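We store amino acids, tokens; thus:
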Amino acid sequence: MRLPPREISLKNLTERVASIALLGLALSLPGAARATLVQALTLPEMVHRSATIVHGTVLETHTEWEEGTARLYTYVTLSASELLKGGPRGVRTITFRQLGGRDGDRIVYVPGTPRFAAMQEVLVFLTANDGGGYPQVMGIFQGAFRPIPGPEGERRIVGLSSDAAASLRPERGSGGSMATPASPLEGSFTGFLERVRALVRGRAAISAQ
């Protein structure tokens, strides 16, 4: 049985065209290009390049159009359990943003962009503030992680985007006090946090020399 053709109002058609145009704009931006092709980094390299590293819980997300531009951003606010690197002392909430989001019927999607949800526990590696005054996730998806249940009650770490793990390169073995895992995301979430803390301390010690 053939269904009658669906009527499309001029308003809906205009909104669809606008969404397609905005998607084209998003994909033409330098940050969006990295969403599908990012430079693979080791964990020490990502720690070094990040301005801020935060372990916390998502309080809320919302979308806004950037004033004076045609760019739609999703703003994510975290309650910081721990600032592993950077960030002003005493600050308990941090807001960062990522290109794309949904505003009514209009959707701007950047491939690979992680999705954040309220009450979600996350670990994010953030850039310095962009031109609008907000940090963003390193490499679009590369610096966003969360814990998941693992064997015997030990939590594992995974990327919020499926591409995150593939964008991290294994490290060569070192003679440090902590064993270097064969895979950057191998082991527990707690162990990954301690590895990041150790790398931050090591960088701070080198800078102090």
User: Anything to note?
Assistant: The CA atoms of residues 65 and 141 lie 21 Å apart. The mean pLDDT is 81.
